[in-house]
Each structure stands twice: as structure tokens, then as C-alpha cells.
Amino acid sequence: MIEHRPWGDYEVLSDEADHKVKRIVVHPGKRLSLQRHSNRAEHWYMLSGEGVVTIDRDDRPLKSGQSVDIPKETLHRMKNSGKEPVMFIEVQTGDYFGEDDIERVEDDFGRV
């Protein structure tokens, strides 16, 4: 089932006791909230588009075929810096994968 958000959408591809996998699409000009997680680490693998990933307030470009690891408790976000949708696979590992394990520090859409 595809979940729609103000920045794009995501689909859960696998949800198991020891991991969760999502396909995430970020629309041009949009970005995820600057956030961190207490219970999970993430690995992002870019499938298409051009993005800028923020890791602890350090920005770096990310494009198709590249990936980044995000440890637990690390501030992070993805911004679509191109004209086409950004699509990436997110692999979560840890103890808990619920959406309530998101601490938003900054958000373009007023979410807490």
C-alpha cells in the first residue's frame, strides 16, 4: 500500500521483526523533515534522480547507484535537488520500526 506524504510517498516492501524495507519517492523541490530515530539505523540506496542528503547537518549530493548509512540517533534528511522524482530504497535495522520513532527537528510542512 502506498502512503502519501506532502513531500512524496513511500511503500513498505518488507516488514519483518529484524528489518523493514521501503521504496521512497521525493517530488522535485521537496524534502523530508530533518529527523532522527532512537531505535533504528537506515541504509539508503538511490535508484533514480538527484538528491542532497543531510547527515548531522553536513550536505552531500547523492545520485543513482550511490548509497549512505545513517546510524541511530543521527540527524538526516533527503532533498530532491533535481527536476525528476528521487527514488531510493530505505533498509531499516534495529529494535523498532514504527513511524512514531521519528523525532522531527525541522519540517517544511509543520509536522511535529
Q: In the CATH scheme, what's the topology name?
A: Jelly Rolls
Q: Over all CA atoms, what is the radius of gyration?
A: 13 Å
Shape: globular
Oligomeric state of shown chains: single chain
Tally of distinct domains: 1
Low-confidence stretches: none
Count up the helices.
0
Average pLDDT over all residues: 96
Give me the secondary-structure category.
mainly beta
Describe the protein in words.
With 112 residues, the chain is mostly beta strands. The chain has one domain (2-105): Jelly Rolls (Sandwich), CATH 2.60.120. It is built from no helices and 11 strands. The chain has strands at 2-5, 8-15, 19-26, 34-36, 40-48, 50-55, 58-63, 67-70, 76-80, 86-94, 103-106. The strands form 3 sheets. It has a 6-stranded antiparallel β-sheet, with no helix packed on it. A 3-stranded antiparallel β-sheet has the order 7-6-9, with no helix packed on it. The protein has a two-stranded antiparallel sheet with strand order 4-11. It is globular. The two termini are 24 Å apart.
Features:
112 residues; six-stranded antiparallel sheet; three-stranded antiparallel sheet; 11 strands
